[in-house]
UniProtKB/TrEMBL annotation:
Species of provenance: Saccharomycopsis crataegensis
Pseudouridine synthase RsuA/RluA-like domain sequence ranges: 131-282
Protein name: Pseudouridine synthase
Catalytic machinery residues: 174
GO molecular function, one term: pseudouridine synthase activity
Length: 410
């Protein structure tokens, strides 16, 4: 099978490909022609829509008429109804992701080898048997298919390179984060591992590179929450804050570089909240030095300021409802504007990096992906360095998985 991938300067690209799918007619589509839906809502160009219809790749199945299929010229006068199924085939352009070049210290070995599968692999394999696959995940690649990413995800890349049919990720690791990631190869192993994580039998150790001279050792017990960036208008505590949860992270300084004014810190979370380590490091005043969300040069400084204000008030016993009603209303408009402006700016900047100014796809009219100029923006200095399985009764170490240190350590 031909590889869908190409690699240039440490960045992995997916060759554009066709993807067939079907969609039930949405309420807002009823009474409209397929042409209107495709060109105005789905933003296909007219020439590309015509090409899809002429080739029979875009058609409508009317279930209420014994699944009659409308194709070609029949679509010109057809108005969509409830129950219609729109079949389509899109030409997908997946965003690029990083290879391991920005993580692995030994860049002379571009490929690793799976003894179990007798296959070469571009991702470093830490351990493998018939039930498990443990890898050293590069930064900048999603774990599993999501949004615009399918082939350019870790699970699909590993399945392709190793010839494995099924892989089940048993825990989370953010796209920007690197390090130990455990996959199960079957449902039985996945269930066992998920139980280990759920009942906290697995101890997770991370390395972070942060701004400032970190204390020798400390523990952060701050609750973990985020101001919700997904609402344009903010009016209730439900929309202001994503649920507040208890969070505990232990930290220990490994080293400090006076010239950079940065520290390497070991992070051991007791709880597993989303972005917990990143939020706790920010709260302590030592954010990950290249964190675009919680760092000193964040795209959303007002949100970080508000979150810190909420945290301080919570420590003095105020309820979240009281904070929202009495202190937050005046900030709602500014907050929503900043969030959307910063997100839009970040998106547009990244889009400019992804796309060539002049080249367009001659198949679908999409702008072609350019070589990505700033791969460092697709990663942060946070690395899952070690996972340990602890016996719940004796507390003895049953097994452990360790990765090689990332390149950015000093």
């Amino acid at each position: 099978m031909m590889s869908p991938y190409s690699i240039s300067k440490g960045v992995r690209y997916v060759r554009p490909y066709f993807h067939a799918f079907k969609t039930n007619t949405k309420g807002r589509w009823v009474g409209k022609s397929l042409f209107e839906v495709m060109t105005k809502e789905l933003r296909y160009s007219e020439p590309y829509y015509k090409k899809l219809v002429d080739s029979g790749k875009s058609f409508v199945v009317r279930r209420h008429e014994n699944s009659k299929t409308y194709k070609g010229d029949d679509l010109e006068e057809l108005k969509l109804r409830h129950g219609d199924v729109v079949h389509n085939e899109v030409h997908k352009h997946e965003p690029p992701v990083l290879t391991g070049d920005y993580l692995y210290s030994n860049t002379t070995e571009k490929l690793f080898y799976s003894e179990f599968n007798k296959a070469k692999c571009s991702v470093q394999i830490v351990y493998e048997n018939k039930d498990l696959l443990v890898v050293n995940k590069p930064s900048g690649i999603p774990v599993h298919p999501t949004g615009n990413f399918f082939h350019n995800t870790l699970s699909e890349l590993l399945k392709f390179e190793l010839g494995i049919d099924n892989l089940y990720p048993c825990h989370r690791l953010d796209k920007l984060t690197s390090g130990i990631l455990i996959f199960a190869k079957n449902h039985r192993a996945a269930k066992i591992l998920e139980d280990h994580f759920r009942f906290k039998r697995i101890s997770k150790h991370y390395l972070a590179r942060v701004t400032g001279d970190f204390p020798d050792e400390t523990t952060c017990h701050d609750p973990v929450f985020r101001v919700n960036p997904s609402h344009k208008y903010i009016s209730t505590s439900q929309s202001i804050v994503i649920s507040i949860k208890t969070g505990i992270t232990h930290f220990k300084k490994i080293s400090y570089d006076r010239v950079l004014n940065q520290s390497i810190v070991k992070c051991i979370p007791e709880t597993g909240r989303t972005h917990q380590i990143r939020i706790h490091l920010r709260n302590l005043g030592y954010p990950i030095s290249n964190d675009p969300t919680y760092g000193h040069e964040t795209v959303g400084p007002l949100r970080n300021s508000i979150e810190m204000g909420i945290l301080e008030s919570l420590k003095y016993g105020k309820s979240i409802e009281e904070l929202i009603n009495k202190e937050m209303n005046s900030l709602e408009y500014n907050l929503s504007n900043e969030l959307f402006q910063s997100v839009s700016k970040e998106f547009l900047d990244r889009l400019k990096q992804y796309q060539s100014e002049n080249l367009v796809c001659d198949v679908c009219g999409e702008k072609m992906m350019n070589s990505f100029d700033e791969p460092e923006k697709m990663m942060i200095y946070l690395h899952a360095s070690e996972y340990r399985l602890i016996d719940p009764q004796s507390k003895a170490l049953e097994c452990e998985f360790k990765s090689d240190p990332p390149k950015w350590l000093f």
